[in-house]
Amino acid sequence: MTNYDVVIVGGGTAGLMLARELGRQKHKVLILDRKKNLLEFSFNTLGSFINLDEFQLSEKVVAQKIDTAVIHSKFLKENIAVDAYILDKKELHKEILESLDTALVDIQLGVYIKEIKTDNENNFSSVIDKNGVEYSAKIFVDASGTSGVLSKKIGLIPKVTDLATGVEYNVKYTGKKNEFHLLIGKDYKGGYGWIFPLKNKRAIIGFGTFDKSMVKNLKENLHAVLELPNIKKLVIKDNDLVEGGSIPITPVIDKFIKANLVCVGDSVSQVNPIVGEGYKFVFEAAIMASKAISNSLLNDDLNLLSDYETNWKKRFLSNYKRSKVAQERIFSLSKKDYLTDFGMILLKLRANKKNVQTISGEYQ
User: Fold this and answer.
1) Cα dihedral sign for 290, 295, 296, 300?
2) Rounded CA separation 352/225 (Å)
3) pLDDT at position 263, please?
4) Could you give phi then psi for residue 12, rounded to 5 degrees?
5) Which distant-in-sequence residues (6+ apart) come within 8 Å of 240 by Cβ?
């Protein structure tokens, strides 16, 4: 059996970025994922305020460059000048996979982790898959997304979490390619909509909700959105291929470590509450975690893992708390059109910089 420094459960957004960084720091890493293909997704695009250079990503991961966010209520709309992207998730994950140091980073797919074992010192010694195969390491990472394969087992996050769930279509697009659209108001029944432009006069139109009672009717609600007059001016549905997925909306938490287990990404609800996409924030968290893990390994001191939590709190905790308040306020406003329009008037009265801070989740 290969001796690994780190075993990462999950080969998604957080797991791949963490593995890339740990490989660069010359640590032996194993990624385990239940998927058979790491380039298959429930959603294929996302809007992001990411700085590509900061994470050493190329323009190949960009589906469309965006300079305007258009916020729509039933009767009003507001244009916000932004510096953002629509990202192609497949290209982004492919680029990170190709950047992994294959001499140091191994990947095993189709692996379902069922258990994590502890040793006599209450540190974790191995994870065990459904076939009874054990994988040992000095440090373990849960990057398994909303499944929370390990984080839920050890109580860092509730076993049942609140989720925002959405569905979307890839459609013809007649709007401006540099604008993405955010849709709120009673027509969205307490949910929200989005239109993300792509290349070749295509776009993604989606509908999402935080209301559990509406999840079964998401597709029908999206069809109703497609019939709204202002939406019909922008998109034309020409296929029946629907995609969908969920993100966590648990309360803001700041505990990500137990003994030699580190959690990153959706496994500990690190998606910014107001933004939803999470990539920018999860990549930053993964890099923070990689530095703490590397330092811990080099000094043979598990206490140094706590630097990850400390640095995350300094960078994100205040932002996330403010974003959570904004999220709850928007949910409340979106249930009635007159409240939504009132919120739109407030947007119009604020400086563009303040509006960008709100929709990007970056207040600092």
Assistant:
1) positive
2) 28
3) 97
4) -100, -145
5) none
The per-residue pLDDT for 238 is 93
pLDDT computed for residue 103 by the predictor: 96
For residue 352, what are its two tokens? 């563009």
Helices 318-333 and 337-349 cross at an angle (nearest 10°) of: 130
pTM reported for the whole predicted model: 0.91
d(CA 41, CA 277): 14
What pLDDT is recorded for position 275?
61
Q: How far is CA 358 from CA 17, 272, 273, 352, in A?
A: 26, 11, 11, 10
Do 190 and 209 meet the contact criterion of CB atoms below 8 Å apart? yes
Query: Which residues are bridge partners to 134 per DSSP?
Result: 128
Q: Name the stretches of the chain with pLDDT < 50.
A: none
Rounded Cα–Cα distance for residues 231 and 195 (Å): 9
With beta carbons less than 8 A apart as the criterion, state whether 226 and 235 touch.
Answer: yes
What does the chain come to in residues?
364
